[in-house]
Amino acid sequence: MSANLTSSRQPLPPPDANLGYLLRLAYQRFRSLLENELEDTGLSAQEYAIMSVFETSAELSTSELARISQVTRQTMHSAIRRLESARLLERSEQNRRVVLLRPTKHGRDVLRVGTKHVRAAERAAFAAFTDNDEATVRAWLAGVAGMTMRAGEPDADRKEKS
């Protein structure tokens, strides 16, 4: 079901357009591609993102999931209820105050299938790139995602451009 990121109906923005606009547009188009790819699994892109957190953590609280996903606890609670209803997540009460969530066997199976679909979307997004180009883009995006300083502050680690 792999889709193509290019479309004759959507003109390409100029490369010198505002970076925020380019990032948002790229995100929106990639998320549409993900939604299309994940349709067979019954997961939305948001639900897949939540489930994928469990690839590196066996159990997490709602608060931890919300913090990792950068959404409010209330938004995460709604998503978790949907995932529980679909039998993808289950609760594990540690005590009265601590409730952890973990994927069910069915949830792990759906995540595995969903990951195959997501990888297909990634291959479509990087189709025109060399392996080195892809690695550079991924490293740059990870760096942008990890930025904590305010714009305009000096960065001691920033490389001087000649």
State which percent range the strand residues make up: 5-15%
Mean of pLDDT: 87
Give the overall silhouette: globular
Summarize the helix and strand pattern as letters: HHHHEEHH
The quaternary state of the protein chains shown equals: single chain
Number of strands: 2
Helix content: 40-55%
Sheet with the most strands: spatial strand order: 1-2
Question: How would you characterize the overall build of this protein?
Answer:
The protein is mainly alpha-helical. Helix content is 52%, strand content 6%. It has helices at residues 19-38, 45-52, 62-69, 73-85, 105-125, 131-145, and strands spanning 89-93, 99-103. The protein has a two-stranded antiparallel sheet with strand order 1-2. Helix 1 crosses helix 5 (105-125) and helix 3 packs across helix 4. The longest helix has 21 residues, at 105-125. The relative contact order is 0.13.
Short description:
The protein is mainly alpha-helical and 162 residues long. The chain is built from 6 helices and 2 strands. The protein has a two-stranded antiparallel ribbon.
Please give the structural blueprint.
Blueprint: H1 19-38, H2 45-52, H3 62-69, H4 73-85, E1 89-93, E2 99-103, H5 105-125, H6 131-145
Antiparallel strand pairs: 1-2
Helix pairs in contact: 1-5, 3-4
List keywords for this structure.
single chain; 162 residues; two-stranded antiparallel ribbon; 6 helices; globular
